[in-house]
Amino acid sequence: MEENLESIKVGLQTLLLKHDDISKNVSICDTALSNNDNSKSSFVKLPDVSLPEFHGVIENWTDFKKQFDSLITNNSVLNDTQKLFYLRSALKGEARTIEISEDTLSH
Asked: Which Pfam families did the record assign (predicted)?
C-alpha cells in the first residue's frame, strides 16, 4: 500500500511540475512578445521528449543510460524518489524482472 501511495504522490508531483513548466513557458512567451512589439514573434511549442526505455539488451545500455541521465538523473528539480519512479517506468520486459524491492537510486 505504501508503494501505491508513493506512486500516486510522485504522479501528482509530476503533474504539478508539468503545470508549473507550462505556466513558465506561457509567461516567457508573453514577456518575449511584449518586449518585441515591433517584430512579429511566434512561440513554437516543441513536442514532449519521451522517457527512454531499456528492455534488458546490454548493447543498448550505454545509449539508454546517457539519455536517462540527461533527462532524469541530472535533473535538479526531481528528488530521488521521483528519479527512482522514472527509472522503474523506463525498465521494460526482461530489465524489469531484475529489480528488487530494496533498490534505491544512488549516484
From this structure: DUF1759
